[in-house]
């Protein structure tokens, strides 16, 4: 059960001063809380023997007042440090999770569902926070505070009465231990069910248009209801086990009270202790109720925290496929990119998605990459983006293997416009300047002209300050594509990769964008993958891919003379264009 503290030992060592102060203050408060019951007993004895004077009464009242003030100050100290530390741990763990997510490769996200990652980043971190805050509190109260009370009862009142009243306690320890094991398993199951619900909800919201188009609202509601009910039942099972703690503790404390009152009355009658001592003893027994509950809460919190920490550590234990070299190379800029007999397979795949790729790209060239759907165009780009471990063969930049550069440096050269255009729920301007920081209005307007986007932005309600909504929901497909393109152009990268990034615009707009690209990208490398061959007609080199291989390579004129796939496809597209106009 206490293994969760061992797993969090790195944090407790880091924050040793904070937790030392908190625990010390907790112990002091525990001791201070034992004084008032003793004063009550003494006062009752003074009243019984007619020894209570006005001066003694005022002295007792002043002591009580002092204890209240002192207790308040010390409680503030432990509360601030203990729960402040818990919040700090949650922040550290959340930041650690976020850093981990940012360095992980696509393979990680294919293995772990988004909803599950969100659940571990929220509910599980809350449970861990509770362990480092409320868990420490219940640990101190269920051990040290309990020990103080028992010692106070034994040494200041009567050991026989104390031991008799504590007979039910070992029974509680056995029962609580059994409850804890069951809670750990049930809480893990509940968190898994919540992850499933989280993931389904996310997918349902993303796919709401498709759900409506296929009239599947009722089926979606039914599935959601089933998952919600599963989460409800799993958490109900946890709550059911937790509910056993309170009545168990109450029964055992009631037995202690019965023993204490019965045996205590008998020894009072035999003049072993005074009435004041018996009253004090029963107050101490009442004070034992919270520590007894604390034992149950401690088991509950520890098991929840342990289960959640295991889930979080399972994610953090997964290592990225691509890492920085120990001694990275540095160059001013990429002059020559070479693919020499490059072969690549996705993790878990037995087939090669790239085979025997030979390609040399000089700085300032425009490279067109065309081919059927699934030919390997995007996979080729992913090698430059270093989303996977280096492929077999030689992929070099300025003569150095690509994995000899740091990820930050190699990716800083590249502006990437993917097939899926990801926009954030921010303004148009914030999306445009996402990769480059603040830009002047003239710079932004110039790029908008280059991306044939200026008139579209001016037509929006607030222009550049218009919120685009979740994933750019308020924009058309063509507008999203062009904002993604403008975002990459604003970075002014050494290499820009356009992965079929003009498919949603018409031919005239495409021609206008290509014309501006020639001007904007003069002297810098541009890679364009496209299905419309007019987008790559101007390229210095064009490669045709099929099943991961380069089957044609040359300029537009050379490929047209070859009479291969490129010639046939270009001719068909030109005929379609004439028919449509």
UniProtKB/TrEMBL annotation:
Membrane topology, record value: Multi-pass membrane protein
Key words, A-Z: ATP-binding, Cell membrane, Membrane, Nucleotide-binding, Transmembrane, Transmembrane helix, Transport
Domain of life: Bacteria
Subcellular location: Cell membrane
GO cellular component: a single term: plasma membrane
CDD domains xrefs: ABC_6TM_TmrB_like (cd18541)
InterPro entries membership: AAA+_ATPase, ABC1_TM_dom, ABC1_TM_sf, ABC_transporter-like_ATP-bd, ABC_transporter-like_CS, P-loop_NTPase, Type_1_exporter
ABC transmembrane type-1 domain residues: 21-304
The keyword Isomerase appears for this protein: no
Record field: transmembrane: 21-40, 60-89, 127-151, 157-176, 249-269, 281-301
Entry protein name: ATP-binding cassette, subfamily B
């Amino acid at each position: 059960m206490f293994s969760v503290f061992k797993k969090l030992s790195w944090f407790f060592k880091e924050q040793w001063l904070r937790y030392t102060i908190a625990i010390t203050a907790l112990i002091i408060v525990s001791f201070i809380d034992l004084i008032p019951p003793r004063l009550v007993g003494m006062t009752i004895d003074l009243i019984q023997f007619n020894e209570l004077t006005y001066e003694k009464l005022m002295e007792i009242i002043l002591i009580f007042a002092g204890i209240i003030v002192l207790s308040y100050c010390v409680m503030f100290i432990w509360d601030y440090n203990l729960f402040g530390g818990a919040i700090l741990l949650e922040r550290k763990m959340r930041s650690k999770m976020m850093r981990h997510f940012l360095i992980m490769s696509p393979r990680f996200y294919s293995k772990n569902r988004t909803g599950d990652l969100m659940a571990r980043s929220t509910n599980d971190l809350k449970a861990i926070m509770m362990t480092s805050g409320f868990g420490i509190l219940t640990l101190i109260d269920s051990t040290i505070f309990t020990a103080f009370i028992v010692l106070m009862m034994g040494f200041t009142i009567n050991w026989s009465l104390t031991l008799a009243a504590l007979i039910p306690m070992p029974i509680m320890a056995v029962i609580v231990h059994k409850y804890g094991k069951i809670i750990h398993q049930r809480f893990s199951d509940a968190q898994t069910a919540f992850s499933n619900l989280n993931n389904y909800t996310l997918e349902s919201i993303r796919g709401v248009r498709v759900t409506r188009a296929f009239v599947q609202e009722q089926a979606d509601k039914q599935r959601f209801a089933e998952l919600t009910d599963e989460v409800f039942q799993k958490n109900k099972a946890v709550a059911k086990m937790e509910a056993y703690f309170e009545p168990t503790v109450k029964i055992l404390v009631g037995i202690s009270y019965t023993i204490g009152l019965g045996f205590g009355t008998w020894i009072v009658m035999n003049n072993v202790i005074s009435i004041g001592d018996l009253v004090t003893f029963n107050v101490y027994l009442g004070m034992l109720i919270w520590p007894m509950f604390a034992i149950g809460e401690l088991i509950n919190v520890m098991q929840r925290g342990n289960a959640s920490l295991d889930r979080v550590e399972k994610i953090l234990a997964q290592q990225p496929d691509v890492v920085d070299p120990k001694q990275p190379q540095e160059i001013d800029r990429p002059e020559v990119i070479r693919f020499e007999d490059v072969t690549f397979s996705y993790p878990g795949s037995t087939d090669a998605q790239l085979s025997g790729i030979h390609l040399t790209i000089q700085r300032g060239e425009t490279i067109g990459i065309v081919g059927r759907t699934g030919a390997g165009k995007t996979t080729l780009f992913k090698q430059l983006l270093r989303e996977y471990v280096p492929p077999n063969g030689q992929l070099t930049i300025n003569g150095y293997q690509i994995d000899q550069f740091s990820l930050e440096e190699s990716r800083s050269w590249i502006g990437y416009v993917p097939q899926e255009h990801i926009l954030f729920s921010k303004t148009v301007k914030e999306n445009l300047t996402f990769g480059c920081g603040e830009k002047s209005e003239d710079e932004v307007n110039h790029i908008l002209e280059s991306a044939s986007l200026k008139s579209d932005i001016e037509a929006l309600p607030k222009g550049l300050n218009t919120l685009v909504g979740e994933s750019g929901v308020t924009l058309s497909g063509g507008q999203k594509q062009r904002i993604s393109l403008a975002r990459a152009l604003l970075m002014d990268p050494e290499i820009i990769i356009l992965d079929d990034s003009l498919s949603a615009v018409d031919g005239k707009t495409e021609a206008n964008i290509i014309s501006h690209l020639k001007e904007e990208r003069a002297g810098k490398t541009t890679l364009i993958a496209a299905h419309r061959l007019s987008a790559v007609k101007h390229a210095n080199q064009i490669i045709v891919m099929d099943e991961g291989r380069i089957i044609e390579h040359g300029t537009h004129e050379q490929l047209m003379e070859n009479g291969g796939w490129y010639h046939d496809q270009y001719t068909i597209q030109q005929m379609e264009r004439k028919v449509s106009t």
